[in-house]
Amino acid sequence: MEKLNQEYLAARFAAVSLHLALTVNVLQARPDHILAALSGSCVQQALRMPAACRQGNCVILDELSAGCRDSWQASESIFYRELSASIAFLVVELVSMLTAVHCSQQEALNFFGAMLHLGGSLVLVLFLVMQASYAYFHAVFAVCYVLPFLGELNTWLAIVRGAYVKRFPPPETSS
């Protein structure tokens, strides 16, 4: 069972790394996803702006009406905070896995964490390719970022409360 848990942990580490890379790509493409969430009239106004303004490099958003500007700024703020939290959760998980400290009965967390992160990576690929509205990211955030993070947090809380801690030995080298 220990070998299986190590394989789950390795798969989870790879899945979290892939998920982190895709999340950074979504962060860079966030104006496209915000644009997809705006109303039709706001989209027309936004498309008249220079591309640099849509990328957030423009101080003056005069091309947008007050309602569209407020909608754009509110959407951007929410989406940016979710993406920042997502990246923070993934980094914490990666660092936590690198410590190689785990409780007994960790197999389920490693398995489900790997599956959720692989599923999240697949959804993010579709999200990027289809340039979907940022509103769809809320569900991805809840399921594929928050749940695995809470599982990892639960593990560390169990360790703090005195759960049995085990360390994975270093990999065996073949000579």
The general outline is: elongated
Order of helices and strands: HHHHHEHHE
Question: How many extended strands?
Answer: 2
* Biggest sheet details: 2 strands, antiparallel
Q: What strand line-up does the widest sheet have?
A: 1-2
Low-pLDDT regions:
none
Keywords: Membrane, Transmembrane, Transmembrane helix
Protein name: Transmembrane protein 107
Transmembrane segments: 108-129, 135-159
Organism: Symbiodinium necroappetens
Defining key terms:
elongated; 74% helix; 175 residues; 7 helices; single chain; mainly alpha
Write the layout of secondary structure elements.
Layout: H1 2-28, H2 30-37, H3 40-48, H4 51-54, H5 66-98, E1 101-103, H6 107-130, H7 137-160, E2 165-167
Helix pairs in contact: 1-5, 1-6, 2-5, 5-7, 6-7
Gist of the model:
The chain is mostly helical and 175 residues long. It has helices spanning 2-28, 30-37, 40-48, 51-54, 66-98, 107-130, 137-160; strands at 101-103, 165-167.
